[in-house]
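REQUEST FORM: STRUCTURE PREDICTION
Request ID: SP-0412
Submitted by: Lab K.M.
Chain count: 1
Length (residues): 124
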Amino acid sequence: MTGHQAGEATPLNCGWCGEEFAWGRVGRRPKWCSESCRHRAWEQRRAAESGRSAVEVVERVVVREVRAEVMPRGREWATVLRELALQIDRGRVYDRDLDAITESFAEVMRSLNRRDAWLRRGQS
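STATUS: Completed
RESULT:
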């Protein structure tokens, strides 16, 4: 080893992770920086010798439920409004939301009153 004084640590690169580590030049020259890297390299060699890969790729289908807001149409509104009435009766709607709901109902009633055909249906 040229360029190193006796007793000086020699820098080496780990055979698994590539990190540089110091070798105090005592004993066999190490290939790995830690026991963990040595073990991983052994697992990789063992898997390669058996014809398998040490890394197993697992494919799986992930089903995720996505809630899309769908506005009621036609007669579906009656079901939604009945459900709202039940929730209000059961105390499932916060008092702080009642003003906004009341205003929305008032707007619905104004819209119904603007519909001539709806108004005349009770006069037959």
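NOTES: The chain has two domains: 10-49, 76-123.
Reviewed by: T.R.
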